[in-house]
Amino acid sequence: AVVSTQSTGGTADFKATYVSGKVEEWCKQVELLSAIALSEPQCAYSGYSMGLSKKWLFLMRTTSDIGNLFEPLEEVISNSFLPAILGPNLPQHLRSVFALPTRDGGLGIHSTPSQAEAEFSNSVQATAPLKELILEQRLSIDDERAGRFISDSKEAKSDVVKKKRKIQSTEKESARSNIPENERRLFDEISARGASSWLTALPLKEHGFVLNKQQFHDALLLRYNLPFQNIPLSCACGKVNTLEHCLSCALGGYVYMRHNNIRDLTANILLEAGCKD
């Protein structure tokens, strides 16, 4: 990692100009992805989390003091991309939840200003043994020094992982404390092991992992207890059409269809695993 302003050419002004230019480019790409999310939210989310969001990691890890320069990108993410996949008027307290890893109940959509500072700090710590070795200016490295370098590198990387997990745990507890008390049980459930595997799966049609716009959008609304838009006030059965009623009403056979889909999926997985009974 490069601490000085020489990371992008020399002066602080040049660094700011260079980083701002890259951020402006990424903002346009997130806006484009937001437009795609209006019709294909699962593909857009997968493209962001597994592709686009990795583009700025190298710059974050190699350039110091650029968190404030990523604020325009954070605005586009918060005001365009998140509403495109979740809907408008998102509660403010959920932004810290969305920044959490999916395994902790979030979406893995980080706040880029704070992410920039954290990535650079972790990079400095992880590469410290290599920096030390370079500064020694050795013409050759004996086995003892090579062994110590490998050991120090592994320890440094392990310390970084432990630090990140500790910070993530603290952020998770902080986000949970900001959630209304009646929704904390839901947060605990979506943080359970395996509860978010559907979010990290690639939308591969051949494996049946593709969700259409309504399926993906509704799944996210259920995940974060967000209100559904444009649904009838009354069910065809005559009762008030609440979310709980939608999921349990037997009229139309949807409850049985949902049950049968899970049954058939389980049976197919068992067959693929070699079970014959």
* Multimeric state: single chain
Mean pLDDT: 90
Query: Which structural category do the helix and sheet elements fall into?
Result: mainly alpha
Largest sheet: none
As a whole number of angstroms, the C-alpha radius of gyration is 24 Å
Order of helices and strands: HHHHHHHHHHHHH
Helix content: 55-70%
Share in β-strands: under 5%
Total DSSP helices: 13
Q: Could you list the spans in which at least 5 consecutive residues all have pLDDT below 50?
A: 1-9
What would you note in describing this structure?
- The protein is an all-alpha fold and 277 residues long.
- Helix content is 61%, strand content 0%.
- It contains 13 helices and no strands.
- The protein has helices spanning 12-37, 41-50, 57-62, 71-86, 94-98, 112-126, 128-135, 143-178, 184-190, 197-200, 213-223, 243-248, 254-272.
- Helix 1 (12-37) runs parallel beside helix 4 and helix 7 (128-135) packs antiparallel against helix 8.
- The longest helix is centred in the middle third of the chain and has 36 residues, at 143-178.
- The chain is globular, with a radius of gyration of 24 Å.
- Mean pLDDT is 90; it is low at 1-9.
